[in-house]
Model the fold of this input.
Amino acid sequence: MSLLKHAQEHIANQARFTNLNAFVYLGDRALIEATAKAADINPPDETPLAARLSLAGRLIAIKDNICTTEFPTTASSAILKDFKSPYDATVVKQLRDAGAIITGKTNMDEFGMGSHSTHSIFGPVRLSRFPGEIMSAGGSSGGSAAAVASGQCWAALGTDTGGSVRLPAAYTNVVGFKPSYGLLSRWGVIDYANSLDTVGILARDVESVESVFDQLNVYDPQDPTSLPPTKRSQLGFSKKVNTRLTIGIPLDYNITTLDPAVRRAWVQSLHYLQDCGHLLKAVELSTTRHALSAYYILAPAEASSNLAKYDGVRYGKRADGIDGTPSSVLFAKTRGQFLGAEVRRRILLGAFTLSAQAIDNYFIQAQKVRRLVANDFNSVFAEPNPLTADPFDVRGVGVDVLLCPTAPSLTPQLAEAMAQGPLDTYMNDVFTVPASLAGLPAISVPASIAEEDQSPKLRELGIKETAGMQVIGQYGNDGLVLEVARQLLQAVYEKDMYHRSDPSVTAWGTNCADTPGLTKYTKYLKGSKVSYRNIMRLREEKAFPLPKVLKKVKVPGYGILDKYPTSAEKRLRKRYGSKAQELGLTVDEYVAKKAREKRAKVTEEQKVKIAGEKEEKGEDAYEVSEEKSEGQATVDAPHQEK
Amino acid sequence: MLALPKRSAFAAFSKRPYICSSCLHRARSLPLASGTHPISTPNRSLQTDAQTSPTENSDTTSFRKLLKDAAKKKKKESRESPLLPNQSQTDKDRRLEKWELTVGIEIHAELNTARKLFSRAATSIGEIPNTHVALFDTAFPGSQPQFQKETLIPALRAALALNCDIQEKSSFDRKHYFYQDQPSGYQITQYYEPFAKDGHITLYPHDFPAGVSPEDGPINIGIKQVQMEQDTAKTVHEPPSTHLIDFNRNSHPLIEVITLPQIHNPTIAAACVRKIQTILRTVNAVTAGMEMGGLRADVNVSVRERTAPSTEHGLSYYGVTGLGQRTEIKNLTSIKAVEEAVIAERDRQIELLESGGIVEGETRGWTLGSTTTKRLRGKEGEVDYRYMPDPDIAPVIIGEDVVNHLRDTLPRSSDDCINMLVDGQVYGLTSKDASTLLLLDDGDRLDYYFDVVEILKATFVDNAEVLPRLGKVAGNWVLMELGGLFKNDSWSETRVPSSQLSSIIAYLLRKEITGRTAKLLLARLFEGDITLVDEIIAREDLLRRPLSREEYTNMAQRLIEEKPDMVAAIVEKGQHQKVKWFVGQMMSRGAEGTVEPGPAEEVLRELLQMAPMEQK
Done:
């Protein structure tokens, strides 16, 4: 198929799938077609393989937090509404230089904060595989994933801070790759959490991802975190790709809340890899269980700092009228009005964990956990980490890559996802966050789920359900991670004969055309018994519960508490603390006692007075709830303060 | 002053109640220095031109005056105090005996670099607003810092001159606070790991005005650390309520020098600031004097009872224990302000403590000319800066070879310089003249002085009698005679080339011209005459022609006859000073280069039958 034909298909899909809300800005159709046509006429490469891997004339979508001069760059935030960056991000420039066509900007969670692409001024991304269905496309790169999945573009760039490329890839049945931190330039990528932010690539097959990755994997002097050329030359994998690899099964990812369908898909994927001749080995990554908590300390902390620049003074939107007071900053109103609820929540979280009173217990602890997570990974990989390890460090047995699910559940309903509280939403990132904290390359590939786990309705409609499987490798082993992902995807799709990158087919397999199948992968010998035994360890009853978050805080004057006292509790303590101490009671007991006394008095008065003047105060509200918790009858009567 | 062009440009907006979006738009459309295309600017030595900006507190040019004033004041005080014991003065003395002051100083100085700390935009002073700004300097989304390692060089020179240990590894942190001149919402500074630690400076008697140190012997003051950080943008107030922001200064590299709280006297505090300023300038690390915002100081002031046991209730700052509660006075922009603010704050705290109050840890402000510090914000209003290591900036690793090279090539320290100038064997200047020479015109005057002395030394290489006097004579001419001419003009070493001045001095030292002729010659050269001194003297016959005694007597006789009233005043009323008038008359009447004051007065005194001149 010619590039022009592909482009036209993509553009047709863009019109067909507007209900997905994947794109927020689209490029000019005529211009795109003209560029694709020109690429057809002047194929830059002669060989068929090179032509297939060339980006020339390909339609690539860009997540809206990556700066482009031709489209606005809003990061889906009201505060950057209509903001047009004066410069192109390095990755965008690299794509253009390779002849790729930037087809538009994709929807996302505001500043990348979210797991379902719902926190957006453009409205949520809706994954709709058949009329009437509204599923979550994952987040925060949900727009990019949905655009790729529905054939609206050939590939897309997203950003992955804690799984923002891999999670939507898993939910939308596409391939999502987060390279090693520092390989792809972040210049022009709007910061969420600098030490974790990575540009990621979404496409329908691993080869496409790889060709985009090869184009972008270049040192950029503009990005201070870009890996310098001297270090780049040291990266790579000493083993040849076509050899027997050791695949690690991280048992700690077998958590009790893991959807059984996903667990079965995981086991199936391991079987596939074993069939390819690889060895399977169970490994333990115990500290990764704390990775999620650490991530949700570190990322908001950096976010609270990075987002301080959005004040509407130099660019972006500004609240009408006078902002601020003579004694305060002049953008309180602007920030309050134009930053979304989730963003405000994370800014507040971050500001708290960095504050003088909390930094030791939160930020510093989380950094230590981060280091432990990285050490954990280093301890299981056969290759040493080229950034931290002694180059002469000889490793014993270890694994080459790890295989685990990308998300603990299958694609959730959007309504369900939106109804989740913030903490439950954060749980979606439990498997993606560890690799982010350690800066490791990780890719999510769609793996078909067992027949019995599939929804009969979807099967009837010819929609293929998948679970994302994540391949994680040692730092700099991006090539190996991509190779294992390719083998896995090929094994999964061996039976489903359609070309993964055909724009006339969605990622979930509808409108499947009769396209020639993929070349068969040469199989190795059968795997060992050890591998089977290791897979058996992934049974549901062996699952680990995630550690309960222990909420212990040290509060001056209170000692260690389960949670920080509310202002109402503080007021109570201030008022009754000393009296309660005299009686040898806790404040709660004292308050309850007082309430009982009052109630007795009030019931007396009630006989005379009509309960009509309801004027509850903070203390009263507290008392009422206290009584409720004690299971006593509440008396909803006003009482005067003495 | 810097705002003038902008002020007129934005005059139309000055009445707006808040920054309107059109202003913003205009600011947005201003050209930005792109990060990819470096602006090439020569490495400048950005210096203050004090003469063009005469301000009340211009510290460098008025130093001589300051010395004079201080000397005068001292004299006056010593005259007055025994006669009129001032009640409040003795009160104060009694208090100061009871209470000990402790001061720690933080000095911010703009580094003398070509580029900003984290972008390739050029640094600038007084340029058109918002013309030297890279994307990162205005915190554009997606822009990242690019540490300019060249900025380390002046910073390292400064730290070495302050005798600090250069840290092999240092790192940058973000200090968060909201203000419109802080575009990213945080300042990048070195909080956890500064690049230089544990230095010290030594104050010698010559570091004090009036040459009198409040303590005997040299005073050592520890430097806790030196750190690098970004400067903020500049806010220009447009009354009534518009604020315009110029990002040219934003991210200009600064160093912050933090002293230990080891200063117990306001004069020492001021001398300490001046000394650090001198050191930074001597090693060519900073841009300007305080008056241009190049140097700003914050002081921490506390008092404690001298008799109180030091362990009790004492607070500790930077390892110095047993101190009283301190307050911080922010943003002092001159040395005079440092001294006055410390005095005012010390007196306020003592007053407070003596009346039974307690000092609160708070931030205070000081405006020049006021008598007391003003509370800015208390502890409850304190900003939690939420210091966080900057995740984008890699730690700075400084190689030992760089440090050694910079240490070896460091210019001579000001103390060494002064010692050399004062040394009778070499230059023999007074310490007052030496320190003046060092401070003037960023050392240019000193270089000029060295040039003059070198030429003279070559001229008088065989003259053992004149040779030891050269330094002092040259100093006199460079500072007093030439300095006097430059009073209202900015210094330029080419106006009177050093060869010309040394030529004049040489004639004078050989007694071939009179002092008066020499001064007239110098004035002529200053006014733009480029003729060689030799030629002027030859052409206009200015050589000293000694008159005979008869010629002097005749001249004097004539004068005395012309002015009998003056003679009467001298002889009868004993107004002996008037004899000088006659000397002057004789000199102006005689041909140039003939009459000299010494012999003239001698003859006059003889004729008037006065006592002969006292021998000097």
User: Anything to note?
Assistant: Chain A touches chain B through 48 residues (CB under 8 Å). The first helix of chain A runs from residue 3 to 16. The two ends of chain A are 86 Å apart (CA to CA). Residues 292-366 of chain A form one domain.
